[in-house]
Amino acid sequence: xxxxxxxxxxxxxxxxxxxxxxxxxxxxxxxxxxxxxxxxxxxxxxxxxxxxxxxxxxxxxxxxxxxxxxx
Length: 71
Hints:
This protein has helices spanning about 5-10, 35-60. It is mainly α.
């Protein structure tokens, strides 16, 4: 698409088609069912631990230890 075609477009235009939605989460990208289930369980545990640590930190307890993998 060249400069002329880009400038000729309506800036308020929206796509007429939808992008196909994916079935697999981009966080867990494996087609192996057992590996995916195990990874989702680890992710759920991590999120639970992180949210608990963040809640304590938000209450002013700044000596809290966040789970491994947190930046």
